[in-house]
Amino acid sequence: MKQFGLNIWGNDNFIIKNNTININYANKPSLLEIAQDIRDKGYKGPLLLRFPHLIEKQISTLFTTFEKAKKTFGYQGKFQAVFPLKVNQFPNFVHALMDVSQKYNYGLEAGSKAELIIAMSKTPIGAPITVNGFKDKEMIALCFIAAKMGHNITVTIEGIGELQTIIQVNTEFNEDIENPILPKIGVRIRLHSSGIGIWAKSGGYSSKFGLTSTELLEAYELLKKHELLAYLSMIHFHIGSQMSDISPLKKALREAGNIYADLKKRGADALCAINIGGGLAVEYSQHAHNRDRNYSLDEFANDVIYLMQEIAKSRGVDEPDIFTESGRYVAASHAILITPVLELFSQEYHEKNLRLKENNPPLIQELYDLFSSLTRDNAREYLHDALDHMESLLTLFDLGYIDLEDRSNTEILVNLIIKKSIALLKNEDTNELKRLQNRIQEKYLVNFSAFQSLPDFWGLKQHFPIMPIDHLDVRPTNPASIWDITCDSDGEIDFNPDLPLYLHDIDVSQEEYFLAFFLTGAYQEVLGMKHNLFTHPTEAVITFDEKGHYAVNNLIDAQNLMDVLDDLDYDTNIVDKALKYKIEESEHISKEEKRELLGKLYLYLSENSYLKTIQAISEND
Ligand SMILES: *Cc1c(COP(=O)(O)O)cnc(C)c1O
User: Fold this and answer.
1) What are the backbone dihedrals phi and psi of residue 341, each rounded to the nearest 5 degrees, phi first?
2) Are 321 and 370 a contacting pair, CB within 8 Å?
3) Number of structural domains found in the chain
4) Which of 109, 269, 74, 302 shows the shortest CA–CA distance to 188?
């Protein structure tokens, strides 16, 4: 059975059963039955399914692993965590997140005013809120309002200017107030160490964020002068997302730990926490030789606790509370995009499409004989002969000696010979075979937009696990590349012979074939762009009742065509009027037909941009 690397990226979240991939939870429904269930309600485009139990699993693993590490080392500080909203701000996600994390006193991190408003309204009073990123006076004032609501909020300053603004806002909010209420203050430090990988720019000396040592000292003195030292509670750093290697984190922890100890010794008595930001990586790989991270969560937690303890001990200060802002780790696994394959290109290379003649050119006859008598022993030799014949035949075509039918037969036969040879020689992993796979790759046209649903693939070539959701008892043999439905050649996930994806040879005019894209719950949704006006796909939240049955909740249909235009600030009344007017004024159609056209038009306008059905199947309906 082909696993599609499930044992590498799947984290025991799925099992393969009865040829389908199933949720490894409750009654273990298959993704196929859930998708069909929703499609039966009339939603035909791509579906984004959210699984709150997978959010809960990540949060509880995070907390229990850190609690275990604390116990191992007898660590005195607390462990706390917040979710960085920039990773996923969608309400169906945030509501599920807050719902499943109640018992952990889990909070939210905000990096902009809009995110701060989400945090202020959704975080339970008492759970932590951290505020990072560049802030103006209004944003800092919002933090004061949150503090006065009773929120446990920490504003992280990214520069001296922000501290000056805090001092100013404090005067405005708290002058003449007997018991002033302020947010806690954190400082983001500019590290020497930086992460590794495509998202490593957040750390390091040239990073966009954080205070240098000189600025830290200046901030310390300013806080002291304005009697605000009692609010300085947190040191913060973030070395970049999807940290593939643990060593930069260790360096960062040593830097941050020593800064913490130094400031405490200087008199920052209220300082009690180190916020290690995010960066905890997700394993996206489908291939054992190409892993995305070299450490486990256990190692990560042990390193953090051990290093902080060591520094605190050697410098003679209290062990700090540890905050994390892991976002990718918490959100990635909860969302799966499921969508049908619309068409397979190059399926014309089938034996049934051969147009052999009574009398074929001798080289074609020979190709046919090679194909018919191919065996494991002669495969390599015959393959070379076939490639050689093809060159000659293409030259003969260019010179006008053979016709289009001969050329088509050549292409089909050579393709079939390559395919068959690769299958016969599959245990010999040579470069030549790899190169040839590229040639016979099958293009799968899939009903989704890579720009909308996998923007990190488009922008950074980040790979995501992809697999069909049924036929898993059959060994897939087609080297596959995936085309999305945008009119942009960047919307293609190429076949990569080093990290190959094989899919099944399915006649999609006869049966549906669905692909699933996994681990799409972090960053992809809000980064997704509306290229060609394909918008956020239809989404649903899948929960389970006590009996283990799943339920489809909070279904949100992808935007309809008029709403898409409305979002771009078209005046949709004018668009609507123009369409109607043009039908009504058209000269060559009858009144009756006009009425019919209008009816159809309005039906289509109520639907979304994605393709609805597979052509051939709908013709048979
Ligand atoms: C983006 C970001 C995070 C989240 O990082 P992940 O790699 O998704 O865990 C955490 N903290 C800050 C300050 C960030 O900017």
Assistant:
1) -80, 130
2) no
3) 4
4) 109
Q: At what angle do helices 52-73 and 91-100 cross, to 10 degrees?
A: 40
Supply the range of the domain harboring residue 536. 6-50+336-346+441-560
> Are 147 and 135 in the same domain?
yes
Task: Report which ligand 1 atom has the smallest distance to the Cα of 279.
Answer: 7
Nearest CA to ligand 1 atom 2: 278
The finding on whether 456 has its CB within 6 A of some atom of ligand 1 is: no
Closest residue by Cα to atom 11, ligand 1, is 277
Q: Cα of 202 to ligand 1 centre, how many Å?
A: 9
State which of 129, 196, 325 you would mutate to test the pocket of ligand 1, scoring each by most atoms of that ligand within 8 A of its C-beta. Answer: 325
The whole-model pTM stands at 0.92
Answer yes or no: is the C-beta of 133 below 6 A from any ligand 1 atom: no
Same domain for 250 and 286, yes or no, is yes
Kindly state whether residues 176 and 134 are assigned to the same domain. yes
Is 326's C-beta closer than 6 angstroms to any atom of ligand 1?
yes
Three-state SS for 229-285 is HHHEEEEECCCCCCCCCCHHHHHHHHHHHHHHHHHHHHCCCCCCEEECCCCCCCCCC
Going by C-beta distance under 8 Å and a sequence separation of 6 or more, which residues neighbour residue 396?
A: 361, 363, 402, 406
Q: Which of 206, 207, 225, 220 is nearest to 160 (CA)?
A: 220
Beta carbon of 210 within 6 Å of any ligand 1 atom: no
Same domain flag for 229 and 153: yes
Place of tokens 């599920």: 96
Give yes or no: residues 130 and 142 share one domain.
yes
In angstroms, what is the span from residue 76 Cα to ligand 1's centroid?
25
Q: Which residue has the tokens 């806002």?
A: 169
Do 430 and 394 share a structural domain? yes
At 514-569, the pLDDT tens digits run: 999 999 999 999 999 999 999 999 999 999 999 999 999 999 999 999 999 999 99
Q: Ligand 1, closest atom to CA 86?
A: 1
- Determine if ligand 1 sits within 6 Å of the CB of residue 409: no
Give 492-512 pLDDT, tens digit per residue.
999 998 899 999 999 898 999
Residue nearest to atom 15 of ligand 1 (CA): 238
